[in-house]
């Protein structure tokens, strides 16, 4: 059943825009042109992808990987002053002024080394390369939305196995989330390319992402249409460096064990 978006929280509405014009900088961040398409969150795996909001009204994307667990990016929960910014809600099936379901948040786990290694400067917060591979987070929901929306499996092999999988797929991946230029609709880039799996576990890629896509899933989709999460979107370079750098995600082998421990902890409660 679809619910009216207004039922969420009146304070949330100003943070969401139906559609905003792309800036020159945003357009530069795309790889030649905007290859994103609207993807209605009614089928697998998109019905498991949702929108996270924090106390400061930061918007990120996350994916249900267990009935009550969402996988996303760690930097989503740090405000501009470096303070922890807890999540308040997770919404699935968001499409315009309607959504399918919403849950409040019980717990957020961000890697401790990531939080400790952040550098605060006058012009903002910086993530140094040594902690960039720790940019992942797990969110526990008060309502197990995965029971109705389904969950998406996370790749469970090591880095070499992931390289083998990507090579078998010709390094073709799919990414999707709720970007800043249209926070009420899910947009996906099908058939984009992963470009390298770095030694530190970060996966570079050329999927078209903007702010709001932080924490969004990077899928490998097999011939049967089965999607597996192989990475989580982390960052994109400044527009001035687009020709020099690809987008960056954190690959599943980096966080898989920590994620399974977090899920297991939930099962014991």
Automatic annotation (TrEMBL):
<dbReference type="InterPro" id="IPR018114">
    <property type="entry name" value="TRYPSIN_HIS"/>
</dbReference>
<dbReference type="InterPro" id="IPR000126">
    <property type="entry name" value="V8_ser_AS"/>
</dbReference>
<feature type="domain" description="Peptidase S1">
    <location>
        <begin position="29"/>
        <end position="264"/>
    </location>
</feature>
<dbReference type="GO" id="GO:0016787">
    <property type="term" value="F:hydrolase activity"/>
</dbReference>
<keyword id="KW-0720">Serine protease</keyword>
<keyword id="KW-0378">Hydrolase</keyword>
<feature type="signal peptide">
    <location>
        <begin position="1"/>
        <end position="19"/>
    </location>
</feature>
<dbReference type="InterPro" id="IPR001254">
    <property type="entry name" value="Trypsin_dom"/>
</dbReference>
<protein>
    <submittedName>
        <fullName>Trypsin-like serine protease</fullName>
        <ecNumber>3.4.21.-</ecNumber>
    </submittedName>
</protein>
<dbReference type="InterPro" id="IPR050966">
    <property type="entry name" value="Glutamyl_endopeptidase"/>
</dbReference>
<keyword id="KW-0732">Signal</keyword>
<dbReference type="InterPro" id="IPR043504">
    <property type="entry name" value="Peptidase_S1_PA_chymotrypsin"/>
</dbReference>
<dbReference type="InterPro" id="IPR009003">
    <property type="entry name" value="Peptidase_S1_PA"/>
</dbReference>
<keyword id="KW-0645">Protease</keyword>
<dbReference type="InterPro" id="IPR001314">
    <property type="entry name" value="Peptidase_S1A"/>
</dbReference>
<dbReference type="Pfam" id="PF00089">
    <property type="entry name" value="Trypsin"/>
</dbReference>
């Amino acid at each position: 059943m679809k619910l009216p978006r207004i039922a969420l929280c009146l304070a949330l509405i100003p943070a969401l825009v139906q559609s905003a014009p792309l800036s020159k900088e945003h357009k530069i961040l795309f790889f030649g042109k905007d290859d994103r398409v609207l993807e209605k969150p009614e089928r697998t795996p998109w019905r498991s992808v949702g929108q996270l909001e924090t106390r400061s009204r930061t918007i990120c994307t996350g994916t249900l990987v267990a009935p009550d667990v969402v996988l996303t990016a760690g930097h989503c929960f740090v405000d501009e002053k470096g303070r922890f910014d807890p999540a308040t809600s997770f919404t699935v099936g968001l499409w315009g002024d309607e959504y399918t379901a919403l849950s409040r948040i019980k717990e957020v786990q961000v890697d401790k080394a990531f939080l400790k290694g952040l550098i605060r400067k006058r012009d903002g917060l910086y993530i140094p390369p040594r902690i960039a591979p720790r940019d992942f987070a797990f969110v526990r929901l008060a309502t197990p939305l995965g029971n109705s929306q389904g969950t998406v499996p996370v790749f469970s092999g090591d880095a070499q196995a992931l390289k083998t999988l990507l090579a078998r797929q010709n390094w073709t991946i799919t990414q999707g989330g709720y970007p800043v230029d249209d926070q009420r609709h899910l947009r996906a880039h099908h058939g984009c390319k992963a470009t390298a799996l770095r030694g530190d576990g970060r996966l570079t890629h050329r999927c078209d992402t903007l702010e709001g896509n932080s924490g969004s899933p990077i899928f490998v989709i097999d011939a049967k249409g089965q999607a597996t999460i192989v990475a989580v979107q982390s960052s994109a370079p400044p527009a001035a460096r687009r020709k020099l750098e690809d987008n960056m995600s954190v690959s599943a082998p980096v966080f898989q064990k920590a994620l399974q421990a977090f899920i297991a902890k939930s099962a014991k409660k």
